[in-house]
Amino acid sequence: MKRIFTLLLPIFIVISFAFKGEGDKIPAATIKKLDGTKINSNTFSNDGKPIIISFWATWCKPCKKELDAIAEEYEEWQKETGVKLIAVSIDDVRSSAKVSTDVKTKGWKYEVYLDENQDFKRAMNVNNVPHTFLVNGNGEIVWSHNSYIEGDEEKLYENVKKLIKGEALSH
Amino acid sequence: MLKSSCSATFLLICFLNPFNGKAQDKGNLAQDIGSSIHGNFQLDAQYYEPDSLRGAPQINEKMLSNAFGNLMFNRGKFSAGVRYEAYNNVMQGFDPRYKGQGIVNRFARYQDQLLDITVGNIYEQFGSGLVFRTYYEPGLLYDNSLDGIRVISNPYKGITLKGLVGKQRSFFTVGAGIVRGVDGEININELLDSVIQSKTKFIVGASFASKNQADNNPTYVLPENVGCYGGRINILNEFINIYGEYVYKINDPSADNVSNSGGNTYYSYKNGEAIYLSASVATEGLSLLLQGKRIDNMGFRSDRDATLQNLLINYLPATTRQHTYLMPAFNPYATQPRGEVGGMAELQYKVKKGSLLGGKYGMEITLNASVAHGLKQYNVDDTLTASTLYKTKYEEVGELYYEDIFIEINKKFTKKIKMSFMYSRQFYNRNMVQFGTPNAGFTNIVADMAVIDLTYKYKSSGAIRFEAQGYITSNKKNPNAGSWVTGLIEWNPNGNWFVAVLDQFNFDNPDANLKLHYPLGSFGYTTGAHRISMNVGKQRAGIFCVGGVCRNVPASSGVSLSITSSF
After folding, report:
1. CA-based nearest distance A130→chain B, Å
2. Do A95 and B322 touch (CB under 8 A)?
3. What ipTM describes this predicted complex?
4. Less Cβ around it within 10 Å: N or C end of chain B?
C-alpha cells in the first residue's frame, strides 16, 4: 500500500497545482444561523461587494482580539467599501451556547454562523483559528491568512481596498 | 491496506475526470460550475532530550513526528477528499496505537436541495451529540469518523432527515461494532410559515443510534444490539435561547461501567440516561447563560472493550468554564460518563464607552461559576448475570468533583494599551476526574489563580505582550507540587514574525531540588495561510485540552518544529 501511495502522491500534487490559483468558489457546507436556521455556505453573497470570512471560537483569545479590533472600524469599513464580515464559530456543543451571548454582549454587528461539527471548517481546509478569508464580488476566495497579531486588521483592510480597485493583494 | 489503495485510486479517477473535462471545455459552461482542489498540511516534530529532574523520559527514536495532509476536491454539487496521516513514531502524550502511516479518511459526497449523500468517512452530529457525534480534532488525534454511508434529505421545507450506517475509525482500522443511526429535525416556523408569523422559533428533533457487536463472552450474556434514543427542543428569538435534550440508553455492559471488587469483574446492566439544558438571555452589552446536565451511565462506544478516546459514539459536553490561559487550565475538567450532575452560570457585561468605568473604549466583565458532582449510588443486589449494580436518585448528588469561580476583566485604555485580568478559584478532585476512582491516591486540590495580560501596540503592526500568571495552592503532594508562577514576553516586530519567551517556575515545591524553572523559547513566521514555528526548551507535564477534549502530556525537553499550511 505504501508503494501505491508513493506513486499516487506526486500525481495528486500535480493535479492540485494544475487547479491551483485564485478564483475558487466557496465550498458547500451546512451551517446554522444564530436563530437556528440552517443555510448552505455556498449561498453567501454581498451584492457584488467583498466578503471577509473569519473562523473563530469563544475559547480563542486571538480570534476575539481580531474581531474586537475590526468591530471598532467596521462601520467605517462598510461605509467606504461595502465589505461584509461573516464570523463562523467552530465552537462545539460544549461552548456553542456561548457564541450568541458573546456576540451580543460585545455588540458585534457581523453575520454570525455556527459550524458546530466543523463541516465548513474542513471544507475550507482550516487548520487552526483564527483563519481569515477574503472573497471577491464574484464569490471567489482570493486571499487567506492564518493567526492574528496586532495590526493584522489594517493589512486586511488594505487588501479589501486593493480588491475593490482591482490591484494585486499582499500578504 | 488494500481498501486504502482502492479508495485512493477511486478518488484519483474522480479527480482526473473533471480535470480532462475542464481542459476541453475551457470557456464553456464547465467554467461556470468551477472545480477546485484545496488542502492543508500539518507537521509537528520534536527532538527529545532526557531530563530526569523534570521527568522527561529518554526517547529511543530521539525524534518523533506527527503529520497529516488533506486534499479536497469540489465541483458543483460533488465533492471528495482524502487524508493521509503519518506517525514516525507518534509523539509523546498521544496514544501509541497511532503507529505507521496511510490513508485514514476518504469520502465522496453529492449534495443538492433534496438529497445529500456521502460515502466514506463521515462526520455528523445529532442534536447536541448525546446520542451520536463523530468528530475530528487533529491537535488531540481525536477522530471517531464513521466509515460508511450517510443520507441527508430535506423532503419538505423545515424538515431534515438523516440516516447513516458504518463502522468507526480506530487508529488505522475500524472498530468491531456496526453503528446505525437516524435523526429527524423539524423547524416548526419554516414548516408552518404561512400559519405562524412568530419571531420566536421552535425547533424539535429526535434521534436514535444503535450498535451491533457479537457476544463472545463465555461467562456473561451481553446484549449484541444496544440502542440509544432521545428528543430535543430549541426555543429561541432575538433575546432568549433555550435548549433541552433528554436521551436514554438501554443496558450496555462495557469497559465504561465495569466494576472490579474482590478479584471479580462485574458488568453493569443498568440503563443509561442524560439530560442537558441550556438557557441564555442576551441583549447588547449584557448576557446571562445557564447550563446544566445530569449524566448516568452514558459511556457509549462501538466496541464494548474500548477505552480512552477510542470508538466513542456519543459526546457528553462538560458544563464548566473552558480556560484559555496556561495556569487556570492546569487542572482541566472532563465529563465523567459514569455519572455526573453539574452546571454553570455565566454573566457578561460590557460597560459602555464614555462612562466613568468604561472610558473611551468600554470595559468587559465576565463572571462565571461552575460545579460538578458525582451521583450518589445505592447498591442493588439482583442476579449476578444481569446486575444493575447500583441505582441513583434525581434529588441527590454525590461527591464533589469540580468547582470553579471565575472573573475576567478586559479593558482597552488607549489605542496602544490593552489589558486583561482574570482570577479563578478551583476545587479539583483529581482521583475522580483523571482516574475515575476514589482510590487513585491523590488528594483534592484547591487553588487560586490569577493572570494579567498586557498588550502594548507600539506601532501599527508591531506589538509587545506580557503575561504574568500565578497558581497558588497549599497542596504539595501531587505531581507539579505546590505553587507556580509563569511569565511570558511575546514580541511581534511586524505582521509576519513572532518571538516569545516563557518561563514556568515551581518555586513552592517542597523538595528543594525540584524548585525548577521550565524555560521555553519560541519563534515563528506566518505568511498568508502558511505558518512555521519552533520551540526550544522545557515543557511541564500536564493536561493539554482543545475543544473540550483533553490528553495527558509528559514533561519534555528539546526542540520542536511545527508547520501548518493550507492552499
Report:
1. 11
2. yes
3. 0.90
4. N
